Amino acid sequence: MIVFPENFLWGGATAANQYEGAYNEDGKGLSVQDVMPNGIMTPRTEEPTEDNLKLKGIDFYHRYKDDVKLFAEMGFKVYRTSIAWSRIFPKGDETEPNEAGLQFYDDLFDELLKYGIEPLVTLSHYETPLHLAEAYDGWTNHQLIEFYGRYSRTVFERYKDKVKYWLTFNEINSIFNAPLMSGGINTPKEELSQQDLWQAVHHELVASALATKIGKEINPDFQIGCMVLAMPAYPMTPNPKDVLAARHFENENYLFSDIHVRGEYPGYAKRYMREHGIELAIADGELELMKEHTVDFISFSYYMSTTQAHNPEGYSSGEGNIMGGLINPHLDASEWGWQIDPIGLRIVLNDFWNRYQKPLFIVENGLGAKDELVEDENGNLTVMDQYRIDYMNDHLYQVGEAIADGVELMGYTSWGCIDLVSASTAQMSKRYGFIYVDRNDDGSGSLERYKKQSFGWYKDVIATNGASLKAPK
């Protein structure tokens, strides 16, 4: 039987830019998300446009009390959300914060704590203030370390008695593939030099270490982690060249967790920079800061694995995956082309644990699918999402197997526990939640909430601490 630790943190995860709405209320400034109406890989607009569903989200800003009550009904022990940086510092480079923004998160955290739900807060989740992108070219500029440090200190001080668990950046390794969304870099990707991109990576890593230092000074009991996009890479064949191609792909992800945990650039990264003529501008004390202020735990998202080959031209590329990769003929895929691989999650957990011996936390996992609102036998509106239950059951079963393998895992927060706007496609129809939100891709809908079939299933999983999970068929 699968056994989870007694203190395991079950819950759900969201991001401010995908569900809060109220993009211009109570002093909030614009973020890069407000000019990205079509998702991750598309060009930005000059101003917010009405077709950007993220501007309204699911109106969590005004409905958070009702939604938190639903999370409590499921039995959440933890709830991951992010603070919108531009709600606290509207332009990002001010010296004084916006009190109305701070008060909103005070109220939200109070509501969570009322139900005994621990907040798990991401400081920067793909929502760099737009002004920092336009005036400074985002994280390519060294000054962002100072601005992020001020922002971090402000929220750490404000919520030091309400929030214990913190993440510095969301999926920090995605900056290589989505520099505007992940790094607030306004220069178009095709014009961005390797030198500037790697310099931005360095600035973010220094800023993460700085935030860890500041947080520990304010409250030594803070648990501060990094957050990376995890994706095991399989070789397409046993050909050693394919195996090496998979290793190279994984190193691009390991780079970020290696530095967060070990505090220094690994040899493979130094070699890459040396061979590509990249010379980082490193200020005095930055390497020491990174070395001395490493993270307490490693958190990650997991949605799929990838397959790599030395000569990928002879194979079909996967769809919908910002990290690239080839189609694995042994796996099924979601409606958006994301290959479904529960065993890959066990592999990731073991790889991270064996590499670092640091506590782990799964902070994103789930299935994006097109849901249909129907009437149940009692005449109540719901979604019969057995496909989501099957997906999550099979993944969580493998999580239990990894725990049995000896992995130390803090918790699990399913992504989009309430339907929100997809980051990759900016659609509402790509739904992840246990709670259906009546909003459509064209912006229509009542925003009413309805419990899906998976709502009751996840409630049982939490209540039984995973004992209700079934062995995969």
TrEMBL record:
Please give the superkingdom of this protein's source: Bacteria
> What Pfam families does the annotation carry?
Glyco_hydro_1
Q: Where is the active site?
A: E364 (nucleophile)
Q: Which UniProt keywords apply?
A: Glycosidase, Hydrolase
A single Gene Ontology molecular function, please? beta-glucosidase activity
Q: Name one GO biological process term.
A: carbohydrate catabolic process
* Keyword ATP-binding among UniProt keywords: no
Q: Which InterPro entries match?
A: GH, GH_1_N_CS, Glyco_hydro_1, Glyco_hydro_1_AS
Hydrolase listed as a keyword: yes
Q: Which Gene3D superfamilies match?
A: Glycosidases (3.20.20.80)
Listed GO CC annotations: cytosol
Query: Record's family?
Result: Belongs to the glycosyl hydrolase 1 family.
Q: What is this protein called?
A: 6-phospho-beta-glucosidase
